[in-house]
User: What shape does this take?
Amino acid sequence: MSLWGGRFKESIDKLVEDFTSSIKVDKKLYKYDIEGSIAHTKMLLKGNIINEEEAEKIITTLKEIEKDIRGDKVNLLRKEDIHMAIEEELIKRIGDIGKKLHTARSRNDQIALDERLYQRDKIKELSKLIFSFQEVLLEIAERNQEIIIPGFTHLQYAQPLLLAHYFLAYFWMFQRDRERLGDVYKRMNVMPLGSCALAGTSLPIDRKYGARLLGFSKISPNSLDAVSDRDYIIEFLASLSILMMHLSRLSEEIVIWVSPPFSFIEIRDAFTTGSSIMPQKKNPDVVELIRGKTGHIYGNLFSILTTMKALPLSYNRDMQEDKKPLFESVDIVKGSLKIFIQLLKNIKINKKRMREEAEKGFFAATDLTDYLVEKKVPFRNAHRIVGEIVKYCLEKGKSFKSLTLKEYQSFSSLFKGDIFDRLKLDRCVFSKESPGGTGKKALKEQIDLAKQVLKENFRKNNL
Assistant: This one.
């Protein structure tokens, strides 16, 4: 008979037992469940609900159970969930004293506590991985401050950029991801323990004392909300979805860059795979899989949103389905970050090829427009003039470089001999010195700022 079976006339049907069991999923929480139970025991002792001898016996045994579960010495098969499994094991080992552990709590506040403890740890781990990822992006940027690459809008040639500027764009994306996780951490670092099933308890527990023991910044102010809330998981998965979207975008860049028409970079053989039928193939499967796994993360977010969208207060068993998307998302994101960090350390950059492509098309069109603007031509007029020059080049099969000064002056008498200097690729890139631009000075300022941000991240222990 289950620990909650007192009011039932018959044992639970095996089909129901198997269907409602969550032990295969939530056993991952055993460490956090025991951590919470030890704090709860100390809280019960402080309220004189149990005595020192009982508290010491419970705590010592809980630590032994944790060690035994870690060593795979506790049979968790056919248990309802990790909470009941640990409590049953405790009672088996120390008898009636173990039955006092669940005083002034419910599995409703217990699982909310376990998940928050788990999520706190995972946010710290992910923040450290993001930090390492940013270090690699910054390192690539610092090493490649002279390499010019074509910039795109709509996947069409737009304006040339420094490769360092390109990688730093991702640095700042992942900085926002790290900050988002920090915000999630602040909001979810609230202790629900002591809320019990939904209404709190009449027993003299000190919830603030329990919060201090477990490192929470405060206690939940409403017991009903505390046990029915899963915002902390939803917000976490939303943040992970944005993070994976960023990883997927960078994955797409790499897929494009390693393709033969581009050949901007090459990935070491150890981080690629081959074809079962085409011997010549070298495929960027790692980044393709990361791109594909992004869909799993999105799906997990929508799964928990769908689960919660119509639940009345307070706890409903539907909420048992929150753990699988949570755990899976953490595992996917951790794995993706770890392997991407190593992959980026194993790419070879084709500087010559990047420059060749950057010089194609009418890359200096905006610079020609700026040239006229500097001579006090209204921007829209300058834009039209350069557009007409582009049209002329296309009709005549010419490029900006191949035009003569006389041809330029047929469009505007303001064009002088110095126009040809403005058409140089390096000039087009290095002249963009507005803050945040791709010019040399602006890039150095950006790199210095990125270093400062990483230093601050490290000082805050990556949170």
Residues 111-196+217-357 form a domain with the Fumarase C; Chain A, domain 2 fold (CATH 1.20.200.10). Residues 372 and 378 are 8 Å apart (CA to CA). The chain has two domains: 5-103, 111-196+217-357. The beta strands are 148-153, 156-162, 190-191, 218-219, 265-267, 347-349.
